[in-house]
Amino acid sequence: MKGLLIKDFKLMKAQNKFLILMAVLCIWFFIANREVAFVISYMAAMISVLVVATVNYDEYDNGMGFLFTYPISRRSYVLEKFVFGMLMMAGICIAGGILVFAKAALKHEVYDPAEGLTALLISIITVSLILSVTLPVQLKFGAEKSRIALVLGVAGAGIVVYGVQQAAKICAVDLSGVAERIRQASITEVAVCICVLSAAMLGISYWISVVIMKGKQF
Known about the structure:
The protein is mainly α. The protein is about 85% helix and about 0% strand.
């Protein structure tokens, strides 16, 4: 796995122009409105996309077939992608902590640990959600078809949400009470729920991705 991680970090390094542009945009967003949550969400989304893009590089010009001539199992390949994503998430968390400190310094405020934890939770749920959805789709359909599959998936999710709302109305179920309970939850409760949800999503996605990889022919 160490070799795979080194490969992906080198691939990420090759995207230095994009990373510099992303950093400049994040700094500009932060200076413009100082909304740490938005900046963290943006960084997490962009880094997650880059992590998934490493699969494209691996598949380019029959690269995947060449890659598996080395002593690498398909399970370890999938695991490395998730580990790589988590390492990138750790970097985002560090960047988020720095932004929270910077915001407090610029506004001459006392550092708020709750805001720092919120930035951390945002990065965790964003990276977990994007990786959990896009990695299996990318491995299954490849670069071109995966875009269509993701669009259809988003549309399907929207239909499901709409269907749940309509079913709640028909069954006279008050969803506002659930929303109010979520708003009243403590930061600790939210943190536990996000961590459990993220772990569950990543675990299911990892299992699906392994099944997909074992069925692929190179």
